[in-house]
Amino acid sequence: MKRFIGFVTKEFYHIFRDKRSMFILFGMPIAQIMLFGFAITNEINNVNIAILDHSKDTETQKIINKISASPYFHIEQEISSETQIESIFKKGKVKAVLVFQNHFIKDLQTKKQAKVQVITDATDPNIANTITNYINAILQNHLQEVNRNNLPTYQIQTQTQLYYNPELKSVFTFVPGVMTVILMLVSAMMTSISITREKELGTMEVLLVSPLNPLQVILGKVFPYIFLSVINAIVILTLGVFVFGMPIQGSLFLLAFESILFIITALSLGILISTVSDSQQTAMMLSLMGLMLPVIILSGFIFPISSMPLPLQIISNIIPAKWFIIIIKAIMLKGASIQIIWKETLILIGMTVFFIGLSIKKYKIRLE
Question: Name one Pfam family in it (predicted).
Answer without folding.
Answer: ABC2_membrane_3
